[in-house]
Write a structure and sequence with these properties.
87% of the residues lie in helices and 0% in strands. The chain is an all-alpha fold.
Amino acid sequence: MSANFVYRLQLLLEQKEEAKKEAERELARRQQELEKQEGILAELRKREQELIEKRRSRRNELLKSDGNDPLQAHQVQARSDYIKVLGEEIEAAGKNILRQQDVTRKAQQHVEDGKQKVNEARREVEVLTKHRKKQEERFLREAAAKEELELDEIGNVLFTTRQRSS
């Protein structure tokens, strides 16, 4: 066979393969961003739990004296004020957690969108690859049939030439 198969959509196939690779790179970037946002959320939750535990501990110590000396009213008031500040910090931490949960949800949606784009790009490449394979098989069948026809013609010519010679 002297002719080689040339896929007429090869350039499009290569573009689709590159688009698939780019979609995969973008998905990886989005997954890293999601992991980062989830890490931030975990840290915020940890901080909130630390504040809650600290407030619980301070409430338990509110009326305990520091030794043999009786507790003064200003000491109780200062401790009570500190517990209130801790409560405000816990409330602020809760709000930060809610905001971060929203950011994390958006990052998760970006990951899902990225997965969808990767799957779509893979399907496009797969369709073109199957088309290329079928076209190549068809080309090879046609080339084989053409070669077989040429061999039959050569055989007929040889047969006819021998018949005339005899």
